[in-house]
Amino acid sequence: MLFRPRFPFALLPMLVFIAIAMALPLHGQPRDGVTTLNCELRGPDSIRFMDDRYVPEQFRLEVTLRNPGETTIVDVTVYLLSTERFRLLSATALFVDSIIPGETRTLTGESTFLLQPLPSMLSGYDTLAVFVDAPGIRSECSHVVFLEKERKPGLTLVCEAPAALQFDESRNTYVPDPFPVRLILRNSGDAVAADCRIDFLGPSRVAPVDGSASREVGALAPGEEFEFVWLMTPERRDAGNIEPLLFEAQGRGGLGARTVTASCKSNVFIPAARAREYVCVIEIDTVAFDPASGRYIPDPVLLRVTVTNVGQGIGSGMTMLTMLEEGLLLAPGQSAADTLRRALEPGGMAGPFVKSIRPLRNAEGDSLTVTVMFRDVFGNGTICEKVLWIPPADATTISLFCETDRDSITVDAHTGGYEQSEIRFDAVIENVGAMPVYNVTLFAFPDPEGVLLIDPAGREVPIATVLPPGDGRQRASWTVRTQATDIERTVWLRVLAIARDAAGQYLPLVHCDVPVFVPAVGQPRLECSLSTDVTDGGVDMTVDFDTLQTDYEGVPSRFGDYRVFRIDARIENNGDAIASPVSAVLLLPPPLQFEEGESETKLVQPVEIPIGGSAVVSWLVRPFAVRQNTSFTVELLVTAAQTQPIRCIMSLGLAEALDVVRISVPRNLTGVEGVPLDVPVTISPTPGLEPRAYQFMLRFDPEILHFIEASSTASLTESNWRNLRATLYRERGQSALNIILVTDSTRFTPQARETEAVLVTLRFQVRDRGASPSDPSYIVRSPLSFLHYPSVMGDGTLLQPFVLPFDTSGQRRLVPVFTDGEATLSGACVLPLSASTRLFPNRPNPFNPLTQIPFYLAEASAYRILLLDAFGRPLRIIAEGSGEAGMHQVLLDASDLPSGVYFCVLDAGTVRHQRRMLLVK
Q1: Distance from C-alpha of 249 to C-alpha of 264, rounded to nearest angstrom
Q2: How far is CA 599 from the centre of its chain?
Q3: What pLDDT is recorded for position 34?
Q4: Is the peptide bond between 849 and the residue preceding it cis, with omega within 30 degrees of 0?
Q5: Cβ distance 240 to 270 under 8 Å?
Q6: Which residue, among 183, 199, 177, has the nearest Cα to 270 in the 3D structure?
Q7: What is the DSSP letter of 844?
């Protein structure tokens, strides 16, 4: 029986519809029925953060679309999916009209997405994705990019101040004053903080001593700290309170060099300053004139003064000064100034203090003021006054007349001083009354301004015990010295007559005055200027760093291995008098220090600087290394008699102290045609800053030498240095390759060394020139010279020498200084070189442990044979002394040395020759 499957006729209409639909053409739909549009996204693989920006700062995504089908795709839209790590700077969607079958369309340039990295706290990968949309089509593609985190500074500021101040009444000041605030600014971030500074924000009742509310710090490397002490002074106050000291630090760094800040606060309790306040009272007798006796009553007049401390502070070192108006005098033995014996407590009273005053005879009567001033040791005080009426005195008993031998002083135009140093002062007294007077004495008083001076021991002149009426005139004389004054003035000399009557009572005081004109004396007027012997006097005031000397410009010191320079001070006298003596004080900032034996204060020579003259005084100073270009001021203080001190300043700078490394080749190399010539390139010690990479260019003569290879064997760079390369270049204007570019680097810190070592060895072959010993070119010299600066080769390549140090801060660099060398080369016959000083190979070699080292001296000379290790470091002196011309040999015993490569070096005169030896045990 035949089996026939039953057909589902109910599905027939649906199958017909599907068949018809499949036969119709559709856009973007290949014949195989797969609807697709291929997408590829391209952009940078990584975005790095460099200094203050991302690299690249902006970038474009390149979108490639490919239609693998056989129908055209229309209305294509490309969308960028959102991302948190990047900012879209262009349109969010891209539009494409159509893509024909098999077409590949790449969207680049302005027609694609432009993105900018956003600051990221962590490094990591991000996926950039686009979504492609077309009728009936959906597609996505992505690109993975590594985004490095933003490196930025992070400032922390710590401030420490005393918890409280005290007020010291005995000194009338706060303790301590000024008080210190210790500030520590640290860069806790992972990028350099540039242009750092610290500002004092307040409060206003506390102020920095130097008057500046800002302190420049400069750049701080990551992890670097800056610490200093800021001195503050408090304002006096009536009530104690806590002052919050506020400080803020600012710097720049990170993306876009944004500003970063930090702040700190430190509370200080400042107590009240106990103020001092005084009140004084004057009591004085009433004065009358007695016509019967012809005198004032009382005579002397008693003055009583009391002072009271009405303030809160103790009055220490109190003084009392009594000042009398013209017409009143203190009695003999009285002093105008007095000192209180004890301190005046708050609320305490001192006194009464009694003064005896004598009025001068006054025919018309006058009201005269008595003034008393009190002051404590801090300048606090009070003033009190009292008016005293002096009645007219009618009776005349004594006549007094005074005169001088000149009424003016003359100035010496040459010296600027006075021509006359002394004046004669005379007084004549006569009794014109009807009764005798007794105990007559004359007192001479200089002017109160201190211009005309009289010897105190000779001021009082006794005239007579009894002076009868009409007994004739009596004369007294004094010598007056002239004191220089800078203001012309008329001053007065006074003579006072004191006498008693028959009852022993004082007669009214009689006086006479005489004027003397004293002109202003000539004054020296000093001007000063500063200069150095290493700067050009104003255009460039920076002391440069000499890389050849590895020190600042100047001359070698007599006291050590460093250099000093001279600071000159020129002092001119443009005044009207000789300046003498003149001294100068030089004030140096921290980067400078006086040389041994120098004093900051010097007496200017000559001792006298004439009018219109000048003098120069000099100091030797030593500069200390600074790690960045630094500017500061040098200050000079000049003092002289009869003139005010003057100051002058000089702006000076120190250039950055560079770390110098010397790279050298020998000048005494010898070679023979057909024999390899090894040229050791040596590097000087760089303690604490070892090199991690180097590059140099050496010029040689290709007609004499053929370069073979560069080798680091038995050198400083033998271990852990893996990138040694030597490349030949042709210098511009040359037809043959004559420049060797040698470069090497390491990721490991080499061992510190204190001696010179071999950096790399260059091997040459001495070319055969076919010369005979009689040919002048049989022996030639081939310079081996470095290219010291960046140079362009014949093919346009720019070559630059450098030495990079291991320095995690990134702030220090090594500056290479090159020393050129030379090789002396001969023909194939070794006689000429054998006849010159040289070192021959040791025998045996390899050896254990003894070997003979032969050498030849061309002439009698001193020699020294050194043993070096594989890094070129000296181990010992094998032999040294003086030898005659001819062959010599020494024995080396290496029993105490381990197996390995060693070098033997002969130094004799200007010749230095080296051989390699191998010790095998």
Answers
A1: 9
A2: 22
A3: 47
A4: yes
A5: yes
A6: 177
A7: S
Question: If you count them, how many residues does the chain have?
Answer: 921
**For residue 23, what pLDDT is reported?**
37
What local confidence, expressed as pLDDT, does residue 159 receive? 94
User: If you ran DSSP here, which 8-state letter would residue 129 be given?
Assistant: E
Contacts of 822 (CB under 8 A, 6+ apart): 667, 668, 669, 781, 782, 783, 784
Helix or strand holding residue 321 (H, E): strand 319-324
Which pLDDT value is given to residue 352?
A: 93
Amino acid letter, 683:
I
Q: Which two tokens stand for residue 377?
A: 């040791």
* Residues 693/814, Cβ–Cβ less than 8 Å: no
Residues 756 and 745: their CA atoms lie apart, in Å, by: 19
CB atoms within 10 A of CB 167: 20
DSSP 663-697: EE--S-EEEETTSEEEEEEEE---TTS-EEEEEEE
Cα separation values, 651 from 598, 627, 631, 654, Å? 21, 19, 7, 11
φ/ψ (deg, to 5) at 714: 55, 40
Strand partners, 233: 207
What are the DSSP calls for 622-651, one per residue? EE---SS-EEEEEEEEEEETTEEEEEEEEE
Q: Can you read off the two tokens belonging to residue 570?
A: 């020129």
Strand-strand pairing, 659-664 and 814-819: parallel
H helix intervals, 10-108 = 12-23
State yes or no: cis peptide before 176, omega within 30 of 0: yes
Q: Please report where in the chains the tokens 């959102």 appear, as a residue.
A: 82
Burial (CB < 10 A; 0-12, 13-18, 19+), residue 145, is: buried
Task: Enter the tokens of residue 822.
Answer: 């030379």
Q: CA–CA separation, 79 vs 585, rounded Å? A: 77
- Whole-number Å distance between alpha carbons of 498 and 300: 12
Please classify residue 789 by burial: count the beta carbons closer than 10 Å to its beta carbon, then call 0-12 exposed, 13-18 middle and 19+ buried: exposed
Residues of the chain where predicted confidence (pLDDT) is lower than 50? 1-34, 831-832, 834
DSSP state of 464: E
Distance CA 578, CA 580 (A): 6
Separation of alpha carbons 772 and 779, rounded Å: 10
Q: What's the distance, CA 577 to chain centroid? A: 39
Question: What confidence score (pLDDT) does residue 384 get?
Answer: 94
CA–CA distance, 393 with 372 (Å, rounded to integer) = 27
| CB-based contact 739:695 (threshold 8 Å) | no
- pLDDT value of residue 170: 67
| Residue whose token pair is 């181990």 | 875
- Number of Cβ atoms within 10 Å of the Cβ of 872: 22
Q: What is the C-alpha separation between 893 and 904, in angstroms, rounded?
A: 13
Q: Residue type at 554?
A: G
Could you give the CA distance from residue 384 to residue 353 in angstroms, rounded to a whole number? 13
Amino acid at 655: A
Q: Which amino acid belongs to residue 664?
A: S
pLDDT digits (tens, 9 = 90+) for 234-254: 988 877 888 999 999 999 988
Q: How far apart are CA 665 and CA 654, in angstroms?
A: 32
d(CA 285, CA 352): 14
What is the helix (H) or strand (E) element at residue 756, kind and residue range? none
| Sign, CA torsion 215/216/222/225 | negative
pLDDT one-digit tens code per residue, 872-912: 788 999 999 998 887 788 999 999 999 888 999 998 887 78
How many other C-beta atoms are found inside a 10 Å radius of the C-beta of residue 917? 21
Q: DSSP assignment, residue 301?
A: E
Q: Which residues, including other chains, have CB under 8 Å from residue 125's CB and lie 6 or more apart?
A: 144, 145, 146, 147
pLDDT for residue 829:
58
What residues does 682 pair with on adjacent strands? 664, 758
Name the residue type at position 371.
Answer: T
Q: What sign has the CA pseudo-torsion 873, 875, 878, 882?
A: positive
In a 3-state reduction of DSSP, which class is residue 456? Answer: helix
